[in-house]
Amino acid sequence: MPGFKGLYVPGPSNMPFRVRQAMDVALEDHRAPDFPQFILPLLADVKKIFKTETGHVIVYPGSGTGGWESAIANTLSPGNKVLASVFGQFSMLWVDLCQRFGLDVDAIQVDWGKGVPLDQYRAKLDADKQHAIKAVLVTQNETATGVASDVAGVRRILDDLGHPAMLFVDGVSSIACIDFRMDEWGVDVAVCGSQKGFMMPTGLAIVCVSEKALKAGETAKLPRCFFDYRDMLKSNAQGYFPYTPAATLLRALRASVDMLLEEGLDNVFARHRRLAGAVRAAVDAWGLRNCAQGPEWYSDTVTAVLVPEGFDANDVIKTAYNRYDLSLGGGLNKVAGKVFRIGHLGWLNEIMVLQALGGVELAMHDVGIKFEPGAGVGAAVRHLSKAGEAMRMAAE
Ligand SMILES: *Cc1c(COP(=O)(O)O)cnc(C)c1O
């Protein structure tokens, strides 16, 4: 089909031409004497994305899942207790990974549509007077359901109780899109991947590690080799890597970080907020429900839309793809067939969001879902126009 394909899955996200062009370079010698001149400033600048001064950024060839594994393997010992909550496919898979590593996971099951249950975290941590819980897991943005959770709230609980557990955050679909503050929130390991907020191809696990996590690593007994933070930090300090880095992707990361910092993180977050608001306005106007069960859970990077009773969300997704070259995210696991997901993260603007919403309307209309064609797009136009006006007023 002629024209662009619409990529509106919540990762991989759309890749800017500047990022693509940054990778159009000859392969390079990662042991060259001038390689550190590229690596050292790059790692320093990625720290700004995590909002950390005291943390260490580590970049692996890999994906977000590798980042999860690094967090666990570097800091914990077999049988250690960790506190987690499950409310979607990704929070579930992180727990599965912990279990496969032989950890004792207390995984609180939550309705898919809500997020980290702060009250239950508080109760569990309060009851843990012996400090058996070594780490607390938070999926900041559950990509399967479009639910965002309150990381700062978990930090407050740990501080209130004087509980020394480490705080691990899955920020794969939130970092570089939604506010994240490594130092202020006292996060010990934050995990991200390259193909979501960083607007790059898949292929890098990007993590940020606190001094406290490194300290825990000195006595942690889980086996690790590829992901060993110590090997990486030792080489990184000189501007090198313990094994062949994905240098071409690091060139892309350089362009990505430049773009994010040039736009300004606050503007990046505000843009995601504005565009997400347009998608939510459209969902309302269609008379459909957001899988996230209330505004406190709304995600600014992905919206999971519940289709009406009697419809299969996969029909909407297939129709969108087969007839209109529009990729939407599917429902995973418990919400399979019940939701389709609109990814609105990364390199995205108003008209791209309207394109996605228009495509969703076409597909929903084709499969017979009842709504007034144009209602969602119209609501999004009103939302974006108003939000844009407010933004311009504020800038004056
Ligand atoms: C995409 C995603 C992952 C998995 O990352 P991969 O890069 O696919 O390994 C983990 N957690 C969340 C929240 C995600 O969105």
Characterization of the model:
With 396 residues, the chain is an alpha/beta fold. It folds into 2 domains: 24-262, Type I PLP-dependent aspartate aminotransferase-like (Major domain) (Aspartate Aminotransferase, domain 2, 3-Layer(aba) Sandwich), CATH 3.40.640; 264-395, Aspartate Aminotransferase, domain 1, CATH 3.90.1150.10. The protein is built from 13 helices and 14 strands. It has helices at 17-22, 35-50, 64-75, 89-100, 118-127, 151-161, 211-219, 229-236, 247-263, 265-286, 313-324, 350-367, 375-395; strands spanning 6-8, 56-61, 81-86, 104-109, 133-139, 141-142, 147-148, 166-170, 189-193, 204-209, 289-290, 302-306, 326-328, 339-343. It has a 7-stranded mixed sheet, with helices on both faces. It has a 3-stranded antiparallel sheet with strand order 11-12-14. Helix 10 (265-286) packs antiparallel against helix 13 (375-395). The protein is globular. The model has no long low-confidence stretch (mean pLDDT 98). It binds pyridoxal-5'-phosphate. Pyridoxal-5'-phosphate (PLP) is lined by residues 11, 63-65, 90, 139, 141, 143, 170, 172-173, 193.
